[in-house]
Every structure is written in C-alpha cells, then in structure tokens.
C-alpha cells in the first residue's frame, strides 16, 4: 500500500475521484440539504445583482468579503443562472488541479505525502470543501507555500491574493514574516500586491467600501459552531431559562442567545487578538533561540490559522478547509513531528462534516449526541492550537543559521 501511495501516477486519478465525489454531493445533495446554497444562492445573487446594476459589493455597498472575492463569483455567470453551480464546481476544481499539479511537479516523498493529505482533508470536509469561497483561498495558499522555498516573491503575491479573497492566508504571511528566512522577499511582494489591488480598486473602480469587510463581523453574535457558544448550547439543552438558538436574518446564520451570551461575545472579540499576539510572541522567542526556520514557520502558521477559527465567534464549517495548508507545509518539513496534528486535524474535519451538513438539524434541535460531537470538535481545535505553540516553543535549533 505504501508503495502504491508513493506512485505519482495514482495521484491524479485519486484527485479526479475526490473532486467528482464532492461535486456530485453538491449538485445532488440529498440528505445534505442546502449545503450548496451559498454558491447557488448568495454568490450567484451578488454577482447577478452587480452586473444588472443593483450595486457592486465592496465597491458601492458594504460587503462581508474582500474585493477580489468578486472575481470567482463573477466567472460562473458564463453558465447563466441555471448553470452557475456547475461552472463554479468546474472553476474551483480546475484551480485545485493547478495547485495540485504544482505541488507534485517534483514528486519528492514530502510533496507526495502533502498531496495525499490534501485529498484526505477535502474528503473529510465533504461538500463544503468545494461549495464555499474558501476553496479559492486554500488553492492560492497551497500554491503560495509550495513557492515559498524557491520563489518567495511569488509566494508573497499568491498569499496576498488569497488574503484578498478570504482573510485567513494572512496567518501564513505573518508566520513567514516572523520565522522564515525568506521573510523580506515575501513581505515586500505581499505588500506590493496589496498596494496594487488597493490602487486598482480605489482609483480605477472607485471602491468606497473597499475595507468594509473588516467591520462586517463586529456586530455578529455567537454562531452555534463557535467554541464560545458551546456552553450556551448545553445550557439550552438543559433548558436554562432564556437560552435559545435562533436564526439571524441579517447575516443568515444560526446563533445562540441568553444569559452570558453578551459576555462570551465580548470575550471572543478579545480572545482572537490575544491568541494571535501570544502565538507571535512564542514565534519570536523561537526565532531568538535559532529555531529551524521552516519548522518554526509551519508550526506558527498552524497556530495562527487554527487560532483564527478556535477563538472566533463564527466558527463556520468551511474554516476547517484552511487547516490543511499549514499541516501540508509541516508534513513537507517534518512528517514525523507533524504526524500528530495531521491526524488531529483530519479527525476534527470529519467531525465538522458530521456537524454540517449531515446532522446540522439535529444540532439545532440540541440533540445531545450532536452537542457532544460539536464539543469534541471544538476541543480538538484548542488541542491543535496548544500543540502548535508547544511545538514552536520546543522547535529544533539550527545554530548559526542565517536569517
């Protein structure tokens, strides 16, 4: 079996099978319900409204996403309303194919291992792996981490583009700036790309709401999947007066309210910046101790990426698509050391698919088994975050390495 998995010729058939399975699960969702609704509903409507003169998101009206996210939403319009979903799936599958092809162009054992892990992570997440905007940012981030060792300037460009699709690749950029030898070339390229995007959007497109995505999350309550909402969900199951799950029609998510919700929301607002600052501080200490740069970069990227989800008040299932990228980087650096978080991330991703879309209704109905699954999933996120910090603190040293 190991010899089979090492064969490059098997990788592409496996890639095709995985994407066909995921595409079919979105086009014919069955018991998965409306798991593809973000694409055929929100993305399609935003794109159609824009081209028909009802306002361009991030340009003349506020939007929850950075402006480059418009590009992958507009392209599927070539298939019309009826074909929007199919073209979306074709588009993101081709983008994944490009990233996958670049990853295995040099079929070394570390890259082959990372490729198999990415396919496993896609299957573990299920329909959401292709049915959300995050798939675009993940593919760009994969291209970025592959380019990091040989073309750091290109890595900076790709990671910047990914950040302007969905903000999370900024975690990898930050990790590189703190710990990698290539920090300056990546930072300069990322900054130049960001400046170019801002200039184009601001001066050419007149994007008055270019930065509106920054504040769009601030008014949200506790989404049911967030670790901060877990105590309240158990309180609702125990029928504590005033605690309930409700649907927020403004942002189209299920949230939880009741005694303590305001305090937990406030705690979540502070928890993420504190977690990020703490991870960066540990990373800086590791650098001062002459930690091996690639290992420290991978560990810090994992801590920051998982921290963006574990300490957030949203915690949507598609966020787990992010986790594969820093794990892949870690597996390419040290498969033995990153084996544990790789398995933990896969386990949490499988639980995420069980939560959404398969048994989401049961979760909303406060079924104790699904509450236990959600609690376990959220606990795994915190465990992976803690592992990354410990791994960073104990990072192997490379005396005299140039930085």
UniProtKB/TrEMBL annotation:
Q: Where in the cell is it found?
A: Cell membrane
> Where is it predominantly found?
membrane
Task: Please list which residues make up the signal peptide.
Answer: 1-23
Instruction: Write out the entry's keywords from A to Z.
Output: Cell membrane, Membrane, Signal, Transferase, Transmembrane, Transmembrane helix
Q: How does it sit in the membrane?
A: Multi-pass membrane protein
Residues passing through the membrane, by range:
82-104, 116-147, 153-179, 186-205, 270-288, 342-359, 371-393
What family does the database annotate?
Answer: Belongs to the glycosyltransferase 87 family.
Indicate what this protein is called per its UniProt record. DUF2029 domain-containing protein
């Amino acid at each position: 079996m190991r010899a089979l998995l090492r064969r490059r010729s098997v990788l592409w058939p496996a890639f095709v099978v995985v994407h066909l399975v995921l595409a079919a699960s979105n086009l014919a969702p069955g018991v998965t319900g409306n798991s593809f609704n973000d694409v055929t509903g929100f993305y399609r409507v935003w794109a159609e409204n824009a081209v028909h003169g009802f306002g361009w998101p991030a340009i003349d009206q506020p939007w929850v996403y950075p402006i480059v996210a418009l590009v992958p939403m507009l392209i599927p319009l070539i298939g019309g309303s009826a074909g929007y979903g199919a073209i979306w799936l074709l588009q993101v599958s081709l983008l994944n194919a490009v990233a996958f092809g670049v990853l295995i162009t040099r079929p070394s054992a570390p890259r082959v291992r990372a490729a198999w892990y990415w396919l496993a992570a896609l299957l573990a997440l299920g329909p959401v792996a292709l049915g959300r905007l995050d798939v675009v940012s993940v593919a760009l981030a994969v291209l970025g981490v592959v380019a990091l060792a040989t073309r750091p300037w290109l890595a900076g460009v790709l990671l910047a583009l990914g950040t302007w699709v969905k903000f999370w690749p900024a975690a990898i950029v930050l990790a590189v700036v703190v710990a990698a030898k290539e920090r300056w070339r990546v930072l300069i390229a990322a900054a130049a790309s960001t400046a170019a995007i801002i200039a184009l959007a601001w001066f050419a497109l007149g994007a008055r709401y270019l930065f509106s995505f920054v504040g769009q999350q601030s008014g949200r309550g506790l989404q049911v999947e967030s670790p901060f909402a877990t105590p309240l969900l158990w309180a609702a199951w125990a029928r504590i007066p005033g605690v309930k799950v409700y649907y927020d029609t403004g942002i189209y998510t299920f949230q939880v309210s009741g005694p303590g919700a305001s305090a937990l929301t406030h705690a979540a607002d502070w928890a993420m910046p504190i977690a990020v600052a703490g991870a960066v501080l540990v990373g800086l200490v590791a650098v001062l101790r002459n930690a091996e740069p690639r290992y420290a970069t991978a560990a810090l990227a994992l801590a920051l990426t998982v921290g963006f989800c574990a300490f957030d008040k949203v915690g949507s299932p598609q966020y787990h698509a992010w986790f594969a990228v820093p794990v892949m980087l870690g597996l390419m650096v040290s498969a033995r050391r990153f084996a544990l978080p790789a398995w933990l991330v896969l386990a949490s991703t499988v639980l995420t698919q069980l939560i959404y879309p398969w048994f989401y209704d049961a979760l909303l109905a406060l079924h104790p088994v699904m509450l236990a699954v959600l609690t376990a999933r959220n606990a795994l996120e915190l465990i992976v975050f803690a592992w990354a910090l410990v791994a960073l603190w104990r990072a192997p040293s490379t005396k005299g390495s140039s930085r």
